[in-house]
From TrEMBL:
Key words of the record: Antiviral defense, ATP-binding, Cytoplasm, Immunity, Innate immunity, Kinase, Magnesium, Metal-binding, Nucleotide-binding, Phosphoprotein, Ribosome biogenesis, Serine/threonine-protein kinase, Transferase
Major location category of this protein: cytoplasm
Domain RIO kinase: 224-469
EC numbers: 2.7.11.1
Reactions catalysed, as given in the entry: L-threonyl-[protein] + ATP = O-phospho-L-threonyl-[protein] + ADP + H(+); L-seryl-[protein] + ATP = O-phospho-L-seryl-[protein] + ADP + H(+)
SMART domains: RIO
Disordered: region residues: 1-20, 124-161, 497-516
Lineage, uppermost ranks: Eukaryota, Metazoa, Chordata, Craniata, Vertebrata
Organism of derivation: Elachura formosa
Gene encoding the protein: Riok3
SUPFAM superfamilies, sorted: Protein kinase-like (PK-like)
Listed name of the protein: Serine/threonine-protein kinase RIO3
EC main group: transferase
Amino acid sequence: MDSVGVAAAAPDAGPGPAWQSKCPWGAPSTTSISCSLADVMSEQLAKELQLEEENAAFPEVVAAAEGPFITGENIDTSSDLMLAQMLQMEFDREYDAQLRREERKINGDSKVSISFENYRKVHPYDSDSSEDEVDWQDTRHDPYRADKPTTTPRRGFIGKGKDITTKHDEVVCGRKNTARMENFAPEFQVGDGIGMDLKLSNQVFNALKQHAYSEERRSARLHEKKEHSTAEKAVDPKTRLLLYKMVNSGMLETITGCISTGKESVVFHAYGGNSATEDKVIPSECAIKVFKTTLNEFKNRDKYIKDDYRFKDRFSKLNPRKIIRMWAEKEMHNLTRMQNAGIPCPQVVILKKHVLVMSFIGQDQVPAPKLKDVTLSSEDMKKAYYQILNMMQQLYRECNLVHADLSEYNMLWHDGKVWLIDVSQSVEPTHPHGLEFLFRDCRNVSQFFQKGGVAEALNERELFNAVSGLNITADNEVDFQAEIEALEKMNEDHVQNHGKKLSTFSSDGDPPIYDE
């Protein structure tokens, strides 16, 4: 049998698998409709095909969008500008509706309401907006003001007979006082009285006003102290920057913390670093004395510096912040004098504005105890007394200084001897009050050691003569102080007339010699 006969007989064969009934080389059962090239390039046909695809994918959206936006048959939407304005109008309507929903959600049933009217989109083509809608701010009722302004005549009252109302009426004054509360500072919360007819009496209003002014002043003081001054165990940003620079330069290795606080300064402990110069050796442990930049503690301390000839020309009471820097500089110079004379005191490392770095009197971050806090034996107490007597004489004769605040609070006990600290207020004997300060120091030292059981302790008058070398003979304290004031007056007149400071006193107890 030839191949043509086999191919013709194959379809008539018996039943078999499905794949055997289909021939890949057979003719297709359906034929596609042919179209011309002009129909394919027709824009109308392309739009119809696009609409069919959109209707199949988004039937609802297309149904809503059908009309002038798609077909372009409407003349009003043929302009792109008009179409853009209509789209913007729809967007503004949705935005305003969202703002109204937010208003209703936030306000609720509250008497105090807010409005987003300033944020709404007022579109010129919005024809659906009602003309009778007005802003709520134009119609709200202000209980503080009358519906119609009433003026009080010059005679001070209105009305006749029993209906006379004066300007001192309780209701009128109460409403005026309530309205005046709006003039208080914003930080003073007075509440919201809208919807309530409040009436404040004059007594209550005056009390609130005074309290508001007091709170405003207190807030200003606290803000200034926080920004521009040192506080207890804390420093201001400028001082902190100075300390950072010392650490970054390698002068200090680290600052551990605060070890002491006082009326005029805060003292921190730090570990010393490496010095930039070879001639200066930085101690292993340092004490950083930060003078407080608050001015309250220095109001009565200008007398220690304004009459000191070293700072007299630079003293300006109108610039208190310079006084604080001069106060730190004064302590540095006084410590340098004491160190050159061999008096046990902290060693000055560096001075930066109002920050003074000194050697630390103590060990392992533990400061040496004050003389008032340490318990000494009778021998050590006697030893400390004679050491202090010797230091007071050295301070007066060799350093030409008077401590002016010497007491058991400013003396430390370390390594079996007394160390003097806090000499920022120290002055020279030529100071107009130098001898008075010396007599006060002698009284403090004498009373402390007499209470401590030192039998050899001199009284304040004997100690004053022993330290100063003066021979003031007076039977009582009043006459003794009178002679001291006379010497100070004589000294002040001499300095003003000749401009010479007091020369070094002789050791044989003679009166002071003025060097002409």
